[in-house]
Specification:
By secondary structure, the chain is of the alpha/beta class. The chain is built from 10 helices and 8 strands. The N and C termini lie far apart (52 Å).
């Protein structure tokens, strides 16, 4: 029966009940939860914090969930918070305003406010504000990438990209022009502003280190989004690493954070290794090759380089 549980979860991940099923199997011990904390009184948005028991000066990851910039709620991602906390990482999971209530760039601006809150409050939850990361899945990865690549958002809240030790993107849309879908055209319009919504156009070589993971089987966000962004960042001299899985769907790459699916792939291992390495990473004076490896899954990696 225990062997059937991961298969059962994989089936349900294809539908809207997926996150709920993963939460149902999420352990309730080993971490503390602080729920519905306001991070921006102006917009009324709140976030949840997952703290490993006994955490002190732990790395902090702000996670943005996906949902096509129009769906989702932080409560659906307790399994992600628990997964990160189980690796000794303080997880901050914010809500943000979504379409049709708002349009681009409001949800990215909300993301910047959540990062500011995490930096200002991390120490109270066992986190180290100098070891701050952003991470996202799908449209949430788009938000994380915009914060890491376009410094204007963090500058607007009094910060800079120097706040970030790194960015982790899971199956993110980073280069999705031309925009032809009517809903997306409304979210990111007018057309003359479309380029402002594309993370790839902000690859200037000054970004914090990026870890971009994607699956070849992704039929929702094409893996070329990750390849093209990684190439643009590397060509600009910025630090970026990619992990391309030959067999990975759009839902499994986030479902892998669920406790019952965590052993089916090494997604969480890659995130954990990257966070721990970059938490104390100092940019080298010359290019070095990434030491990220995955067995037995195939990896495409871009060198971690110094701008």
């Amino acid at each position: 029966m225990r062997k059937l549980i991961p298969l059962f979860c994989l089936v349900l991940l294809a539908g809207c009940t997926g996150p709920g099923v993963l939460n149902a199997f999420t352990p309730s011990s080993g971490y503390n939860q602080a729920m519905n904390l306001p991070y921006d009184p102006t917009s009324g948005q709140t976030l949840d914090v997952y703290t490993p028991e006994g955490a002190r000066n732990a790395p902090v990851v702000v996670f943005f969930y996906g949902g096509r910039w129009s769906e989702g709620d932080k409560q659906e991602y307790r399994f992600v918070g628990q997964a990160l906390a189980s690796r000794g990482i303080v997880a901050v999971v914010p809500n943000y305003r979504k379409y049709p209530q708002v349009r681009f760039p409001t949800f990215v601006e909300d993301g910047a406010q959540a990062v500011k809150w995490a930096r200002n409050n991390a120490a109270a939850y066992g986190g180290n504000p100098e070891q701050l990361f952003v991470m996202g899945h799908s449209s949430g990865a788009h938000i994380a990438a915009m914060l890491a690549l376009n410094e204007s958002y963090l500058k607007k809240v009094g910060g800079s990209r120097s706040w970030l030790r790194g960015m982790i993107g899971l199956a993110g849309p980073y280069n999705f022009l031309p925009i032809t879908d009517p809903v997306l055209r409304d979210i990111f319009g007018p057309p003359e502003r479309f380029e402002q919504s594309q993370p790839i156009f902000f690859a200037d070589g000054q970004n914090p280190p990026l870890l971009l993971l994607h699956g070849e089987n992704d039929q929702i966000v094409w893996p070329d989004n990750t390849r093209s962004l990684a190439k643009a960042v590397a060509n600009a001299g910025g630090p970026v690493e990619t992990v391309i899985y030959p067999k990975m769907s759009h839902t499994l790459i986030i479902g892998a954070f669920g406790s019952v699916l965590r052993g089916s792939t090494d997604v969480v291992d890659h995130v954990d290794e990257f966070v721990k390495r970059m938490a104390t990473y100092q940019r080298p004076s010359a290019n070095t090759l990434s030491d990220i490896q995955s067995m037995p899954l195939e990896i495409e990696s871009v060198p971690l380089s110094s701008p």
